Amino acid sequence: MTKQKVALISGITGQDGGYLAKFLLGKGYKVVGLYRRGATDTFSRLKEHGIFEQIELADFDLLEFSNICRLMRKYQPDEFYNLAAQSFVGASWEEPIYTAQADGMGVLYILEAIREFSPHTRLYQASTSEMFGKVQEIPQKETTPFYPRSPYGVAKLMAHWMVTNYRESFGVHASSGILFNHESPMRGKEFVTRKITAHLAQMVTGKTDKPLELGNLSAKRDWGFAGDYVEMMWLMLQQEKPDTYVVATGETHSIREFVEEAGKVCGYDIEWKGEGVDEIGIDKKSGKTIVKVNPKFYRPAEVELLIGDPSKAEKILGWHRKVDYKGLCRMMMEKDIERAENGTL
Ligand code: NDP
Ligand code: GDP
Predict the structure, then answer these.
(1) 190 lines ligand 2 (CB under 6 A)
(2) Which helix (DSSP H) or strand (DSSP E) does residue 282 occupy?
(3) Annotated catalytic, 302?
(4) Cα(55)–Cα(31) distance, integer angstroms
(5) Cβ atoms within 10 Å, residue 285
(6) Cβ contacts of 306 within 8 Å, gap of 6 or more
(7) Is 128 a catalytic residue?
(8) DSSP code of 5?
């Protein structure tokens, strides 16, 4: 009988943590979920996935090096998926120092702990398309130069290069997935897609009359489905050689387009009037204002366009996404309408 593989997942309470844990449990792994102790219950996603009982939990904080060392010594895991991060770009201007410590230094702590206590452990690092920032090439691929536009992007870039460096210096089996935005019904409500679907769900079920307030409507993102993307993380760690891969759909859409698509699922036919801060999105049928702009949600520096080229991942890892942009939008919208109806939104 082959030995059961052990995977440690940091960021187990987040969007990707839940999808990845479910995927690995399906593959027969023992999953140890690393979480930060807090005063409130943060396991709602794992409960909604129906996998909470199957996960062993362990305390973890990206800033606590001694704890990371102990975890590595105790579990000697086959695989470590580092999904933990201060993951919200918007917050990184408010908390730049913490973001740099958690998203940059935290990854160095993990690499050091692997090097010292569990050198056979294979590491997946959650890199991000935000590292491309002010894009130097369209579409963005593994060889595109980086130009991060936020403290989040800069911190993640440090981690990204540390992963490459530990691979080259010490032979650590560490891979980076440069994942483009990926969403799901489990996405945090501060991110724009979920903010849109959660608000429209409240509107269409009559729970609110207030228009949705957004920032830059023209920014474009390459949005995929989180459930598809976690498979890629696992595939990277099954390769003989660690590497860097872009994971994306190769399609890009503006925030405006996402609003329109989500609106369609609700029965709205949204048209845009005005410009800049005066722009509004109106439902043609009812004349109701669905969206307005609030400059509060503008960013000090914006990433205007992201579109990735996933051909390396598709070729080497044999990966293809199952959910497309419209399917993703519908899935998120329908789930939030269901939640709004049963009072769980
Ligand atoms: P989430 O924001 O949903 O989850 C982040 C997780 O990190 C949470 O479990 C959170 O715990 C944990 N965390 C935050 N700070 C710390 C800390 N100091 N110590 C320990 N744990 C911490 O993110 P996603 O699941 O969407 O993303 C997963 C990873 O992928 C992140 O690293 C993110 O930056 C990266 N990424 C995400 C993309 C996306 O589009 N989703 C795109 C590219 C990269 P708690 O519940 O306690 O807050
Ligand atoms: P990001 O790509 O990781 O920053 O993911 P987000 O979902 O937070 O933001 C995606 C894009 O949506 C960015 O260009 C934001 O400027 C834009 N955006 C416009 N309005 C909003 C808003 O109200 N909230 C958020 N989070 N983003 C917004």
Answers:
(1) yes
(2) strand 280-283
(3) no
(4) 6
(5) 10
(6) 129, 132, 135, 140, 180, 181, 220, 221, 222, 252
(7) yes
(8) P
Q: With a 6 A CB cut-off, is 86 part of the ligand 1 pocket?
A: yes
Check: CB of residue 319 under 8 Å from CB of residue 313: yes
pTM for the model = 0.97
Q: N- to C-terminal Cα distance for the chain?
A: 45
CA of 288 to the centre of ligand 1 (A): 36
Q: Is-cis flag, bond preceding 310, omega within 30?
A: no
Contact 321, 111 (CB under 8 A): no
Q: What is the pLDDT along the chain (345 residues), one digit of tens a residue?
A: 789 999 999 999 999 999 999 999 999 999 999 999 988 889 999 999 999 999 999 999 999 999 999 999 999 999 999 999 999 999 999 999 999 999 999 999 999 999 999 999 999 999 999 999 999 999 999 999 999 999 999 999 999 999 999 999 999 999 999 999 999 999 999 999 999 999 999 999 999 999 999 999 999 999 999 999 999 999 999 999 999 999 999 999 999 999 999 999 999 999 999 999 999 999 999 999 999 999 999 999 999 999 999 999 999 999 889 999 999 999 999 999 999 999 999
> What residue owns the CA closest to ligand 1's atom 7?
84
